[in-house]
Design a protein that fits this description.
The chain is mainly α. The chain has one domain: Orthogonal Bundle (Globin-like), CATH 1.10.490.20. About 85% of the residues lie in helices and about 0% in strands.
């Protein structure tokens, strides 16, 4: 499930875990309640969060078409869902393997850079209002990884 933890377990099949290895496992276990809480919050408020983003786009980008906005929001939904799962698992590779390679390919077919910049800016603003700073620190690096892939 969690690659780093799996690696520790595999390495320690014939020995006890060293202090630094136990520290890594303990750090993840200690962060799990907050990760679960954040995952549930995003799951339960996904529509509210993303609707607020979609509603603000036309005022920021008056010339955006409905079709482009719909495509951008659908992609943002996937990013938020996969980022949430990667955060829960503490596994950025999950996000890269499952989502980013695919999104990078489809996004290169259309020029949606400006729309994506706006969507991510608004998503980040919304998350700052909806989640605690500790929770934001858990999810933000993953959303940033997606943002960097899609915009640059």
């Amino acid at each position: 499930m969690i690659p780093k933890i799996q690696d520790l377990i595999n390495q320690a099949q014939d020995r006890y875990l060293a202090s630094d290895e136990l520290g890594l496992m303990e750090s993840y276990v200690n962060s799990l309640p907050e990760r679960l809480k954040l995952y549930k919050l995003i799951r339960d408020r996904e529509i509210e969060i993303l609707q607020a983003v979609a509603d603000q786009v036309p005022s920021e980008l008056p010339n955006v078409t409905e079709a482009d906005l719909e495509t951008g929001v659908k992609n943002l939904i996937l990013v938020l869902r996969y980022s949430s799962m990667a955060m829960l698992l503490n596994d950025e590779n999950f996000l890269k393997q499952r989502l980013l390679n695919w999104l990078e390919g489809i996004m290169s077919m259309r020029d949606m850079r400006r729309l994506n910049e706006t969507l991510y800016k608004l998503l980040n603003q919304g998350l700052r209002q909806q989640v605690s700073p500790v929770q934001l620190a858990l999810i933000q690096p993953l959303i940033t990884a997606a943002q960097v892939t899609l915009i640059y």
